[in-house]
Amino acid sequence: MIVERLRVVDRVSVQELVEATEASDMTVRRDLDFLAAQGVLKRVHGGAVSAMPSGLEPPYSLRTQAATAAKQAIAKAAVEHLHDGETIVLDSGTTALETARLLHDRAMTIMPLSLHVAHELADAPRIRLLMPGGEARKGELSLVGPLTVASLRALRFDAAVLSPCAFSLDAGLTAFDLGDAEVKQEAMNVATRTVVLADGAKWDRAALAYVCPADRPDLIITDESAPEDQRTLLTQRGVLVEVAS
Asked: Is residue 58 part of a domain?
């Protein structure tokens, strides 16, 4: 909530955060200190100011702790659309990682686009794990570059499960990293269907690199915090929108 607040205002105070979260003063100060150590904000007297430019991707370690309940619910809904025997390309990102954890005991062929996801599935007994080439981005450990794109182009998949950095009706699916956007585009091109995982915090936002129009995916799985009017508009455009609870 602190990070989301600092995306729309220049400064937050400890007192307003205590009132908004009903957490203790000590808890709020501890969370601010943690975020400061991550480079997300700078501590000032009585609160904090953002230290993260709008075009900068939030650290992976921070995102693993954000909206975890929503991501787990979305992942649980996503695996219901993936069937044993299918070939799946599974994106990078924290929601994709939650999905990988639920696929551990399934019988599928999966190409992970992240070393985090690959590590999660490395010892899965019935998963055939196909590793693409490419460069692992620092911190993110997502795989990007011409070797990753070439690996995707050599194959065909039943489904691409993507986790964009941001999503809006106007800007479509977007990513912070140009290479990441290119890999997501290629994953869609080589898959029969595309499933997008986007919790409500990603809606009505845009990042630097364009991936595809908002109505390009076949299925978007989100949570109840996603704007209802935008969900309705997407449904009218022919996109299946599922709200995970």
From this structure: no
57 assigned to some structural domain: no
Q: Are residues 143 and 175 in the same domain?
A: yes
pTM of the model: 0.78
Listed residues 52, 73, 93: the one ending a domain: 52
Which tens digit of pLDDT belongs to each residue from 16-67?
899 888 899 999 999 999 888 876 778 888 888 776 555 566 666 666 666 7
In angstroms, the CA 206 to CA 243 distance is: 21
**Domain presence at residue 74:** yes
pLDDT of 130-149, one tens digit each? 999 999 998 889 999 999 99
Count of the separate structural domains present in the chain: 2
Q: What is the dihedral of CA 228, 233, 238, 244, to 10 degrees?
A: -10
Q: Is 227 exposed, middle or buried (0-12, 13-18, 19+ CB in 10 A)?
A: middle
- Asked if 212 and 173 count as a contact pair (C-beta separation under 8 A), the reply is yes
